[in-house]
Structure formats: structure tokens, C-alpha cells
User: Fold this.
Amino acid sequence: MRTHFDKAYYDRYYRNPRTRAINPAAVRKQAAFIAAYLNHLELPPKRVLDIGCGTGGLLRALGRQFPKAELAGAEVSNYLCKRYGWSSGSVVDFSSSEPFDLVVCNDVLPYLDDSACAAALKNLTNLSSSALFIGALTAEDIEQCDIARTDSQQFTRSASWYRRRLKRGLVNVGGGLYLKKPLAVTVWCLDRLE
Assistant:
């Protein structure tokens, strides 16, 4: 499995239009979706953490959606911490003296083995006071993704593996968005994916 996230990795999967996994327009749409749903639920975040934030595209897009929010980015990549000024930290053990209203963890968990991933999911739940956005390639997704633009050095667990662990402290409200239990807002049963 990949353990080194250097300039060459980010050039290939983030920057090069021919090989990047996601384009900037898709990142902006993802941020707009997260913002629209949280605003609909009347849960606009005051503090946002993107852990494993990469080059920061989603974090910046969320900052445009929530201009009054305090933004924080954390990364395990020394290269990115030096280049963008992110806090150095792993999704497994990153800590904060205060929880964040919204925690984002996108395309990070598949790089962890099962034990580290389970610990990361618990840590993400603890870091969030309200909402968590998770993006992770699952075994069921492999047939749908563009293999040429997908890093093969990942663990592909089943969606049910993630869901079993996430439902312990969170409610799945769709689109990769989870709310912390006990819920602070009303979410109708048909809006939940349980």
C-alpha cells in the first residue's frame, strides 16, 4: 500500500488534467452539495476541518460556501504541509482541543489497513460535533471508476464494512454526509440511509 505522498503523486492524481482523479468543477459541486444540505438542515458550520485535505481544493471551496467559518487543513504528507501550510497529522490520531462542526475526510481511508481505518473512523467521529463528510472508494465502486485515474495502492473494503462502523456514532443522511448522534436537528426517517 502507498505510504509516500510526494509531489509526483499530487501532480498525477490532482494537477494533471489527463490523469487527475477529479477536476476542480467537480470539487466545487461537491462543496456546493455539502453546503446546501447543511444549510437545509440549518447546520452551517463555524469550524471546518478537512483531514487529508490534499492540495486543499475542497477546503477552499467550502470556505467560499461558508465565508465566516474557520478553516483547518491537516495532512500526513510532509510535502503538502510545507507547500500549503497544513497542520501535520494523521486521520488516525489527529486531535484538537475543540471539536469541529464539519469534518471532511475524502479519499483518505482506503489508504489505511483495516485496523488503522477503524481507528480513523472513531477519531473522525470524535473530532466532529455535528457533521462528517466521508468519501471513500469501496470494493463495489471499482467497476465504476476509471482505473487509469485511480491509485491502485489502496485497500478496497466493502461499503457495509464502513457503514457498520460509522453507524455506531453517526446517522447517514446521504451523499457521504453523516450527522453525529444524538441528532441536534430533526431528520425524517426517509432521509436517512439506514
